[in-house]
Amino acid sequence: MKIAITGATGQLGRLVVEKLKEQIGAKDIIALVRNTEKAQSLGVEVRAFDYNQPTGLAAALEGIDRLLLISANEIGKRTAQHQSVIDAAKVAGVKFVAYTSLLRADESTLNLAEEHLATENLIKDSELEFTILRNGWYTENYTGSITGSLAAGAYIGSAAEGKIASASRADFADAAVAILTGEGHEGKTYELAGDQAYTLADLASEVSKQSGKNIPYHNLSEQEYSETLIKFGVPDAFAPMIASWDVAASRGDLYSDDKTLSQLIGHPTTPLSETVKTELAANS
């Protein structure tokens, strides 16, 4: 059984490849990537796969039994890109596709939800066997700001007291591997979130505890947060998106008490404290 992973050089994709190698060995894994040179260190077969070059996608999927479609990263272009992959999978005879969607994509107010839901519907209409993995937020989305917060003396955001039930990328990679190597998941949509929720004030408190510095959380308005991010060098077009995601968190869009993720992977999701510890160690 040949398993292929799109975006295999991305942060999630690399984890999935490594974990799959531990489960089934390298010979039946294919990394589908835009830049083949970046993928040589993965230790598996590599095939060129560019969402924006649809004519070559079916050939790259020849002989693939199961495909993990990790959502593309070009917001605004993803529905069309994913459509190209789905069409190619049908032509190539791929039997099954798993897709990394968004937590409660059918009701989320996050501006990311529309493309994810559109892709889910494309997959369901394709007649391919499928599983939808509605991934919640990666804890690293927030802990990646720790270094800047330590330098600034505060953690900022616009999530107010919204609870965030995130999990680590490794947890979501474990879920993808469980689907790709397991049985009985066809036709199912899984809502995946971390076991324990926290607020950004809780995150700031954990950073303070582990760093030995007083790092308070300062809640800003959506506009203030966006403008501050731009001052820190975040691109003008991206900063408002980040701020809007925080506001969505304040409305509960990143919260879930569903324990499907930990049940699926067979162990508790990674605690916030552990991800904070890893981030601090990496930048010490």
Automatic annotation (TrEMBL):
Listed transmembrane segments: none
This protein's UniProt keywords: Oxidoreductase
KW Oxidoreductase (keyword) present: yes
Uppermost EC category: oxidoreductase
Enzyme Commission identifier(s): 1.6.5.2
NAD(P)-binding domain residues: 7-181
CDD domains named among the record's database cross-references: TMR_SDR_a
One function term, GO molecular function aspect: NAD(P)H dehydrogenase (quinone) activity
Entries under InterPro entries matching the protein: NAD(P)-bd_dom, NAD(P)-bd_dom_sf, NmrA-type_oxidoreductase
Transferase found in the keyword field: no
Matching Gene3D superfamilies: NAD(P)-binding Rossmann-like Domain, UDP-galactose 4-epimerase, domain 1
Protein name (record): SDR family oxidoreductase
